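Today's session is about reading a structure prediction critically. Students often jump straight to the picture, but the first step is always the sequence itself: look for stretches that repeat, for charged clusters, for runs of hydrophobic residues. Only then move on to the predicted structure, which in these notes is written as discrete structure tokens rather than atom positions. Here is the chain we will use throughout the hour.
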Amino acid sequence: EVQLQASGGGVVQTGGSLRLSCTASGSSLDAYAVGWFRQVPGWEREGVSCISNSGDVVYYEDSVRGRFTMSRDNAENAVFLQMNSLKPEDTAVYYCAADPRPSCGAGDGARPGDYDFWGQGTLVTVSS
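Below is the predicted structure for this chain, in token form.
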């Protein structure tokens, strides 16, 4: 089964950028749809973006569309989330998740229960 490792979080000022990476081991990621989620303590985990296994279909949550870009490099067995124009409300722990299916599926890949495999989180803090 696939193991996921998320990295790239940090502290950035409002308007800044970060690039999150999710690297996989144990299995080739090219058979998996992958999603990025975020969670603030006390709140439900929220879907941010999802990419199909081939990378040709990407979905975004409304509040990040136009600012975040999700991509994947199956040769590197990795998925990325480029986050630009960051806002304080983007502050959260970000998680990547994968499921062995080609598409993001119903709900545009935003439902945590649709994913079998999760990485540990990486903290993103956006200061005002």
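Discussion point for the tutorial: The two ends are 40 Å apart (CA to CA).
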